[in-house]
From TrEMBL:
Start and end residues of each MKRN2 opposite strand protein-like C-terminal domain: 40-196
Lineage: Eukaryota, Metazoa, Chordata, Craniata, Vertebrata
Region entry Disordered, spans: 204-224
Name of the protein described by the UniProt record: MKRN2 opposite strand protein
Domain (MKRN2 opposite strand protein-like N-terminal): residue spans on this chain: 4-29
Length: 224
């Protein structure tokens, strides 16, 4: 269902669409046989298949929900992948280990690819952490506000940081640094797709050349 969005520029506008049109929707100039000033570029899709991203934090929108600002609870479900793409996520029924269902989510890779010793121990850490009684529904019950899927993922991340003698991350800091920028990008992308499916195009003024391609926020920051 994900169509890829392309961006082309004409008439000092950025034109977003699913296909290169025959003519410019602004000025009507025919594109056939003509060279565009700049080749159309594809807009990166902010969603990925969580089962293919090892050692990552995942956010999946609950069914039929539009991604909104993320407050750490609400309609979004979060999980952590092991090195084989199995998603560990905490629910009322305890920790689930899922091999499917997270094919379209926002992924935050947590580990630098050269941290071999951490990667080698990751699956053990995650399994041991998930087996702790803190996540056993017979010992502790799920709580929408205080003991939920987000507490599970964040507590795991902090345990790994502690094991590496690194300072922990508060919920606010993790949310603002790692999660929100990606959620915003995902939510913009979804709005763009909706707009294009209704009107064929989404047209905005081209940003000034000097300010275009500003580095994407936190794309490369890792927790570890
Ligand atoms: Zn034009």
């Amino acid at each position: 269902m994900d169509t890829s969005v392309i961006k082309l520029s004409h008439c000092e506008k950025d034109i977003f669409c699913f296909f290169v049109p025959d003519q410019c929707p602004e000025c009507g100039m025919s594109f056939s046989g003509k060279r565009l000033e700049e080749a159309p570029v594809s807009v990166p899709n902010p969603f990925s298949n969580g089962h293919k991203v090892p050692c990552a934090f995942l956010v999946a929108p609950a069914e039929h929900t539009v991604l909104r600002d993320f407050d750490g609870q609400s309609d979004l479900h979060t999980g952590i992948t092991n090195t084989n793409g199995i998603v560990y996520n905490y629910t009322r029924a305890g920790v689930q280990r899922e091999t499917e269902g997270w094919e379209r989510c926002v992924c935050v890779p947590l580990v630098q690819p050269d941290m071999f010793s951490l990667i080698n121990q990751w699956d053990q850490y995650l399994e041991k952490f998930s087996s702790h009684q803190m996540w056993d529904p017979l010992c502790h019950s799920f709580d929408e506000e205080t003991h939920n899927c987000y507490s599970f993922t964040l507590t795991f991340i902090n345990c790994v940081l502690a094991a590496q003698s690194k300072p922990g991350l508060s919920k606010d800091r993790f949310t603002h640094t790692f999660v929100l920028p990606r959620i915003r990008r995902a939510s913009k992308y979804m709005m763009l797709c909706r707009e294009i499916s209704q009107n064929h195009f989404h047209i905005v003024d081209s940003p000034k050349r000097s300010s275009r391609e500003s580095p994407s926020e936190d794309e490369d920051s890792k927790a570890f």
